Give the backbone structure.
Amino acid sequence: MTKKLINMGKKYIGIFVILGIGVLLASSYYIYLEHDKYFPSISDINKNPSKYENMKAEIWGYLEEINETEYYVAYNSDRIKVFGNKRKNDDSIRQVMIRGTVEEGAVIEEEFLMFEKDSLMFGLSIVGLIGFLTIFFYDWKIKFRKSKIPIFLDRRKNA
Amino acid sequence: MPDWISHLMLGLILAKVFRVKKKSLVLLGAILPDILFQFYHLSLFFKIPENTEWLLVGFHQPFAMIILSLVIPFFFKHGYIKSFFMLTIGWIGHVVIDIINVASFNHGMILLPFSWTVVSFGSFYIAEYFFYILLFGNIYLLLIIIDYFRFKKVVF
């Protein structure tokens, strides 16, 4: 039964791939359209503050105008007021994430996370990626052919 | 998690534990959830509309991973079911690490697009990735030593 299904999949690979990608794109678009009902962003809240009253929100952005009990979080041209503890802002901060409740177009801070500029993490990720590509192409070689699957990865003999 | 090295290290451990010969497929699974999602990090360098992230969130979740794990093996000249399971082992490891961390909401919504429930144990912050590197590095080393005593040779 499983073998039959796999063979059918190989026979109709084009349809199978298009169907898979179609489902993925449709689900992504659905998530994009519905996200504000669950997790509104700064621009969503600014567009219609009353709609998101008392809702939980997770906002990302950069710190601006820090005062004793409030500060602003900006993302592109949008920004929002956040009521919370006084925060320190310096060049080492990359982005901040605030979780809280929306009240009158502002956010009441409940959780504050700060992400520092971490070039080492990105450097290590690039090292990881190079390592992965090395292992991957040690195991597989790309072959081009005229068939329903134009590109496929063949095992290397030594691997 | 934004760093790929800890995900890849866990992939190596899982490949060793499950005695997988084609480690690269497990490793591909281990970074599969992040491949498209990491494009969002371009927002650090370019101005990208804020809600664009939500177009990519779906590609990080198990639902998308199941579909990709069903499609990708067709492109490999290797046993379909084997390839499917290798990829699946990899991405399950990825999702488990993400759940353990204090993840952003969009990393913890593992039931999307069916449910928006956030699943997160909130044990480690993203910046504490060195913990994983040390932990996984040591476990991997231990597995190599165990294999050495079993097979009398170093097997990576």
